[in-house]
Specification:
By secondary structure, this protein is an alpha+beta fold. The protein has one domain: START domain (Alpha-D-Glucose-1,6-Bisphosphate, Chain A, domain 4, 2-Layer Sandwich), CATH 3.30.530.20. It is built from 3 helices and 9 strands; from the N terminus they run ββααβββββββα. It has a 9-stranded antiparallel sheet with strand order 1-2-9-8-7-6-5-4-3. The longest helix has 24 residues, at 141-164.
């Protein structure tokens, strides 16, 4: 389950989740637009219908979709840092809120997963600690809080997709 906290004078929200898959797999899920469109959204809330990404420093990305109310939305930006499979940093410019441009930083840290073997504890694979730092809210506590709640949902959706293959249609 994802956790969120607001830090740095209501300017930044930090959200974390553990995903039982290696960083390379998680990086694919967040950077490959054909995968993003499969998991980013939820029936009865909203869904991404189209995603595009040129994953390189200076490259642009854009997602568009539709809310449950029938309203279209989009969010996009530019990549500031790209270091697969550990780091992805991009600007965030949504059509659905009047906010200054903000910055999203995805940090993916490998973490060993341990389990029990007949001979005792054993390493069973590599997982990923995913940390999102979304900054630039200029003290707007409501926007910071709202994005924190949104990122917790998004990370939960991504976890289901990466770990279980669940898409918007199957979860």
């Amino acid at each position: 389950m994802a956790t969120a906290q607001i830090i740095q004078g209501n300017d930044t929200v930090e959200v974390e989740i553990f995903i039982a898959a290696p960083p390379t797999r998680v990086f694919q899920a967040i950077s490959d637009p054909s995968q993003t469109a499969q998991w980013w959204g939820q029936k009865g809330l909203y869904r991404v219908t189209k995603a595009e990404a040129e994953v390189r420093v200076g490259g642009e990305w854009r997602s568009s979709g539709i809310g449950d109310d029938g309203k279209e939305f989009s969010v996009g930006g530019k990549y500031l840092e790209v270091n697969p499979p550990r780091l992805l940093v991009h600007t965030w410019n949504p059509s659905y809120k009047q906010l200054p441009e903000t910055v999203v930083r995805w940090e993916l840290e490998p973490e060993e997963v341990h389990g029990l073997h007949s001979r005792g504890p054993a390493k069973v694979g590599t997982g990923t600690q995913v940390r999102i730092r979304h900054s630039g809210f200029a003290g707007n506590i409501e926007a910071c809080k709202g994005h924190g709640d949104g990122w917790m949902r998004v990370l939960g959706w991504m976890q289901k997709f990466v770990e279980e293959g669940k898409t918007i249609e199957t979860r």
